[in-house]
Write a structure and sequence with these properties.
The protein is an alpha+beta fold and 317 residues long. Helices cover 43% and strands 13% of the residues. It contains 9 helices and 9 strands.
């Protein structure tokens, strides 16, 4: 879809959001607040009884109904195991609803604060929580959700970049060469670690965590995928060994981590870096992206991105 064709989310106005909630039995009082989300559209909505819910409108075409169902089922399974997650609310046994051409889910609003990741006790608690989540995650497999691997995060992302007008033509060949070389090295790292794929949160960074008086709260399993356990840990490692060691010490209390996976921390960071550029390129038709990420339209940013990829190759070689 080109920028001039509009975007499906253009039709998601306040009346549609509130009407969607009303259609499934959540009487609203008109209060509506857009929350910070780019992949989907997420709103805090006031109800007539004075409480609030959070409505998530799924990006059209991203996930199949079956894949969204697996996200909801996994979240419910975690909640049943007394993991601190926010599970979608059901109406007549259903958690995925439709209104005005959009698919959406409704969640209870939960409060909290950003976790202080410098403290060893906090990190150990997080480690224990993630280990318990993984113990549930390894009980069965996803059948419909994507995997975290080199093809999905690097090669597919690179195809989006190379097909995008955002990538300056003079930079295109250098980018293609860098990504191809990186993918081969990442393949080797993946093969050496031989990680076992389990069901994951998938995007367990500090922004998807809240801290409450009862401890951590895991938010937003929209990126739940199959992959190595380390995917849910490495983004919380911080810059020094102390934070990583505290997190892993807590994890070890509830689940053994294959030590070979620790070698994937660097590769997973690189894979996320490549995937981020691909995500921007793939979503550029969404008007929210040029507004929020204007740097992606500048040649300088792409030159720096490609230089970073070559630096990674040099450091690894």
């Amino acid at each position: 879809m080109s920028r001039g064709d509009g975007h499906p989310y253009d039709a998601l106005g306040p009346d549609v959001v509130l009407g969607a909630l009303e259609s499934v039995g959540f009487p609203t009082d008109g209060r509506l607040l857009a929350l910070n989300s780019f992949e989907n559209r997420v709103y805090q909505c006031g109800l007539e009884d004075g409480t609030f819910v959070v409505a998530k409108f799924y990006r059209p075409g991203r996930w199949t109904d079956a894949a969204i169902g697996e996200e909801h089922d996994f979240t419910a399974e975690l909640a049943a195991a007394e993991l601190p997650v926010v599970a979608p609310l059901a109406r007549d046994g259903t958690t995925l609803f439709r209104h005005a051409g959009f698919r959406f889910a409704v969640f209870p609003r939960r409060g909290g604060r950003a976790p202080e990741l410098e403290g060893g006790d906090t990190l150990e608690w997080l480690g224990r929580t993630i280990a318990r989540m993984h113990a549930v995650g390894e009980r069965r497999r996803f059948a419909h959700r994507a995997r975290i691997d080199v093809d999905a995060l690097v090669r597919t992302s690179a195809r989006h970049v190379l097909a995008s007008p955002l990538l300056p033509p003079p930079t295109s060949s250098r980018y293609a060469q860098a990504v191809e070389a990186l993918a081969l090295r990442l393949d080797a790292a993946w093969e050496a670690a031989a990680p076992r794929a389990i069901r994951l949160h998938g995007d367990c960074h500090p922004g998807n965590l809240l801290w409450t008086d009862a401890g951590p709260l895991l938010l937003d399993l929209d990126d739940a995928r199959s992959g190595p356990a380390l995917q849910d840990l490495w983004m919380l490692f911080g810059d020094g060994p102390a934070q990583r060691d505290a997190l892993l010490a807590g994890y070890a209390q509830f689940r053994d981590l294959d030590v070979a996976e620790l070698a994937l921390a660097g590769p997973l960071r690189l894979m996320r870096q490549v995937h981020y550029a691909g995500w921007l390129a793939q979503r550029w038709d969404d008007p929210a992206f040029p507004r929020a990420f204007p740097f992606a339209a500048e040649s300088r940013w792409w030159d720096e991105h490609v230089s970073d990829l070559y630096e990674a190759l040099d450091a690894d070689g």
